[in-house]
Amino acid sequence: MKRYIASLLLAGALCTSCSDFLTQNPEHSLTMENSVTNYSGAKNIVNGIYGVYEKSSNLGGYLYGSLHCMAGLWEYRSIMYNMGYTQSGDDNTIISIWYELYGCINAANAAIEGISKLADSEYPSLEAKNALLAEARCFRGYCNLQLLWLFGHWFDAADSPYGILYRDKTSELSNLMIERSTVGQSYQLIIDDLKFAEQHLGDYESALKMSKQFAQAMHAKMLLVRGWEGDYAEALSLVNTLLTQSPASFQMETDLAQLYENGWNSKEVLFSRYLGDLPTYTTYEFVYSYALYYDNEFTDYPQAWLEEDERFDVTFGTARSPETWDTGTKEKVLTKLYHRGRYDGKNDMYATYAFRVAELYIMKAELLARTNPSDISGALAPLNEMRAKYTNPVMTAITGITTQQQLMDAIYKEYVVTLFMENESPWFASLRFEKDGKPWINALKPEVNFNKNHYCWPIPDSEIKAHSNPIEQNPELK
Fold first, then answer.
1. Shortest CA distance to 183 belongs to which of 156, 144, 205, 203?
2. Omega prior to 247 cis, within 30 of 0
3. DSSP state of 204
């Protein structure tokens, strides 16, 4: 599917300042002023958001790999594993992800403004207009949620000042200098966008586009991660709705090998970063197509769990080096994501898995365990229902669970093994679930000295310095 880069396509992720990056001239000829003059232009400017996203080369494996390092599941990036990032450290990945997310938000804001300004009479119906607005707002809500999870104190109370820098206008020098929202305000702004999408977006058709179901899934995951009073019950309601009312086009891939072979075309994936329009996919996916080969060993707990799991022979395999000069091969490479690597498989399906059906069952198990902890068999049932759906490989049911701790251990292990390196869920699970009375992250990397303030990254130095009215950095990360 060809995506037209219609809005403010922002070139380059590493720039000297926030204002330089967010106020560049568009790369392409279609802009706000000349693209949204009719319904076709409105659709094109929404398609342009996807173009910004797919060209953001750090919003896939680099992002999820960094979070797995922070969790203590992988040691590929020592600065992430040791949580040694600071504002003055200027880690390039952190800077890139910050600006790439704001690039997507800027493109979404351009679309929202263009669609809103176009007369209602230019649309087939008000419903059609709202559907385009919902698509752009879903994208904006998703990216702002990522910003909060990565750069804000998502774990704080509502009145915490360490929320996001919320931008809802196409960036100009006059509107870049804004204050941080509180954590509560940040959550509410994200929820407003996701709820609008839940109300006005169409049903899921493929992982290439935002959908009503993706908005619901991210809303549920946000509530689960936040964990405020009432959040678990609301999240459980959303998960049950997704499991019972989603269209037939969204369903489990019973053949796990087919899931990873199909990548963003899999019917199990709600949303994926699409690289299909790019000349060489590996240019935009370094970690999956390269790093997983040379750093193919994980830390002790996940390595043992992955190797003893019945899915091991499907998700791991033997692969060739990604380098042209290196003709060697390695066994036990995470081929579900590495595929054949950037030498043999430049255009293999290096997809991201922002959310897929299997995660719904794991979330349901956790939410049942947290809302009704005495019903151990009831909470275990969704895990076994998911496992029973696989035909390749055939999986056995989890049995012998008699205590709440055993149940929580089983759910945590399922998050790690099922979703390993695919999205942010194993990272957050390593903070929510406990071993010996402490979050699992402490058992995964006992030698690292850290605290909650290290659960997020510093706002980049270039952003801090660009503000005439100083914004406050996250504690302990200056």
1. 156
2. no
3. P
pLDDT at 136 over 90: yes
Determine the straight-line distance between the first and last CA of the chain, rounded to whole angstroms: 43
Give the model's pLDDT for residue 174.
Answer: 61
Q: What is the pLDDT of residues 373-389, one digit of tens each?
A: 999 999 999 999 999 99
Q: What is the H or E stretch that residue 329 is in?
A: strand 329-333
C-alpha distances in Å from residue 87, one per residue of 33, 82, 460, 473, 474: 37, 15, 6, 8, 9
CA–CA separation, 139 vs 51, rounded Å? 12
Consecutive H or E run containing 432: helix 425-432
Vertex 350 angle, CA 346 and 351, to 5°:
155
The topology under which CATH files domain 18-222+457-466 is 1.25.40
CB-based burial, 240-251: b 16+ in 10 Å, e otherwise: eebeeebeeebe
Whole-angstrom distance, CA of residue 463 vs CA of residue 452: 23
State the amino acid at position 451 in one-letter form. Answer: N
CB neighbours (10 Å) of residue 157? 10
Tell whether pTM > 0.90: yes
Would you say 394 and 387 are in contact if contact means Cβ atoms under 8 Å apart?
A: no
Cβ(264)–Cβ(207) under 8 Å? Answer: yes
Q: In whole angstroms, what is the distance from residue 230 CA to residue 1 CA?
A: 41
Percentages helix, strand, coil for the chain, rounded to the nearest 5?
55, 5, 40
**Where along the chain do its domains lie?**
18-222+457-466
Element (H, E) at 120: none
Q: What is the pLDDT of residues 326-336, one digit of tens each?
A: 999 999 999 99
Looking at every residue in the chain, the average pLDDT score rounds to 92
Whole-angstrom Cα distance, residue 99 to residue 106? 10
Buried-state track 383-406, b at ≥16 Cβ within 10 A, e below 16: bbebbeebeebebeebeebeeeee
